[in-house]
Amino acid sequence: xxxxxxxxxxxxxxxxxxxxxxxxxxxxxxxxxxxxxxxxxxxxxxxxxxxxxxxxxxxxxxxxxxxxxxxxxxxxxxxxxxxxxxxxxxxxxxxxxxxxxxxxxxxxxxxxxxxxxxxxxxxxxxxxxxxxxxxxxxxxxxxxxxxxxxxxxxxxxxxxxxxxxxxxxxxxxxxxxxxxxxxxxxxxxxxxxxxxxxxxxxxxxxxxxxxxxxxxxxxxxxxxxxxxxxxxxxxxxxxxxxxxxxxxxxxxxxxxxxxxxxxxxxxxxxxxxxxxxxxxxxxxxxxxxxxxxxxxxxxxxxxxxxxxxxxxxxxxxxxxxxxxxxxxxxxxxxxx
Amino acid sequence: xxxxxxxxxxxxxxxxxxxxxxxxxxxxxxxxxxxxxxxxxxxxxxxxxxxxxxxxxxxxxxxxxxxxxxxxxxxxxxxxxxxxxxxxxxxxxxxxxxxxxxxxxxxxxxxxxxxxxxxxxxxxxxxxxxxxxxxxxxxxxxxxxxxxxxxxxxxxxxxxxxxxxxxxxxxxxxxxxxxxxxxxxxxxxxxxxxxxxxxxxxxxxxxxxxxxxxxxxxxxxxxxxxxxxxxxxxxxxxxxxxxxxxxxxxxxxxxxxxxxxxxxxxxxxxxxxxxxxxxxxxxxxxxxxxxxxxxxxxxxxxxxxxxxxxxxxxxxxxxxxxxxxxxxxxxxxxxx
DNA sequence: CTGAAAGCGCTAACAT
DNA sequence: ATGTTAGCGCTTTCAG
Lengths: 336, 336
Description:
Oligomer: homodimer
Structural class of chain A: alpha/beta
Distance between the termini of chain A: 77 Å
Mean pLDDT of chain A: 93
Pfam families (chains A, B): LacI (PF00356), Peripla_BP_3 (PF13377)
Shape of chain A: elongated
Low-confidence stretches of chain A: none
Helix content of chain A: 40-55%
Keywords (chains A, B): DNA-binding, Transcription, Transcription regulation
Domain HTH lacI-type (chains A, B): 3-57
Strand order of the largest sheet of chain A: 2-1-3-4-5-11
GO molecular function (chains A, B): DNA binding
Protein name (chains A, B): LacI family DNA-binding transcriptional regulator
Number of helices of chain A: 12
Largest sheet of chain A: 6 strands, parallel
């Protein structure tokens, strides 16, 4: 069906090698023959077969991004950073949605072994450190966003969860809150664990006793936040602020409050995490923590490409980026 | 670096052909040899090279999804439907983000020509009908979601924008509204055009004169909705309801109202489109139009795979699916 | 049931 | 500056 390089060569009256040269490096060819070749290419609408090219060159110029859940804007922002930087370096980016399933992550990681992808970026993977290291040990190129994996060949980028959690808490404490709820994501997630740790440390720093009944687990989704709030209300214990482990759950808090007629921020302050695109459009605008998502994606893919190119250990492997607390209407209310 | 089929064959004491048979069809092989082969495969951690396989078989089992913007939950829901159905049929799905740029769409479409993908699904493409038809004419497999393209080889699925727009309008009219704003997306988009058409038809059906000053263009994003509302408020003309061409813009309306102290729904009714995941969590919950997004993805990919398999015209090519108006708190208020 | 060998379409080393 | 050719790793006839 499709034209092959040999057809182009015949039409242009040259050899396949010359066609290849024109289409690739493009030096060492007369401009006259180049024109002949390009004419034939156009006329036959020739597109080099990627499989043949990949097989011959032992590379694909493809990078896979394995995201935990493309429904979450946190991931899609990062992906845009990856995409644009990779594109500038002639790599194509393919997004894979793991749908929160470790088996799917594992399945997509095999794209490295079967050489469908030259490299892969995992965003907050669910696979264990060991499993990911094992892949890197076999010589494949893999980078990770949202976690630090101790392996000399795995570039990592992440924010300090503990640090920004403490900042959030300091902000709420400064507003006069003492009974602060922490709405966790699913407890297995490393982000959950570290954000909780920051919450606890801040309490300790301020000599406020930890009350376990103020911590509820959600699932990083709106409904999980909503259900968790209902459970809290049912406990009939007083609290004046909620620190939700992400913005989606904070939205669930909004809903639960709306149903009970509880006004934000005067009756309840709310802070989320991730600076979801919609968070500034809700009423009141949601205070949240912003991570440089786009930049994180761009940095890590650049680092991955570097590594794929010279295939040697480079000094800068781990990047820790700062987050920024955005105080908006949902918590900007000094409690007397 | 990696083991090849010939290594496996040597280790198992068989020929490469036998290894291939074991790994593929798996019939016509003694269970004894199969075991030997599988053992060697495991020990060598063998993964067939995809490029070689693709080249030999002239297919990749890859399907590409070209989405307009993966930041928008409308697309990601559809993609999940595609993904899961394709997965069940042994196809891998790769998501490509066109970032609203026609050139990027075009670039990703070349994945068909270079045989990186066996087929491609475009979700609300920006390319012209002609351009898409041309690709199909060359024998490539392409399917479209969100638009009907008249071509015997292009499966299409979409909802009737005009129809549900009229339903939205009937609902608002039934609530007693007469001065209804229409907040359009970018005017070039076919969805914008058709939704506007429904708006106009509903007015006509009800003998309500069309007032152009009640129509504003947005960009399908929160900020566009917000800015459009500000322009409307500045006009100082009365209106009691807003029909926004999607939920994102409706959120911008919420923000604009919050800033002016306008209460939804009693001072202003708002209806969106798409049933974005977050729309039921905002306050008040947003009335919207639900499309069976997941199902649409699943149907079209199944149809595309059918076509790739028997490569012949099938009767059912165009699917029109019904949408459903979800009346929630933002418009459920009878005006006296 | 299994093996031998051709060939998918391209690039790169070598030759001219 | 251009052509010839081997071979990337696999599957699939065709033989046996």
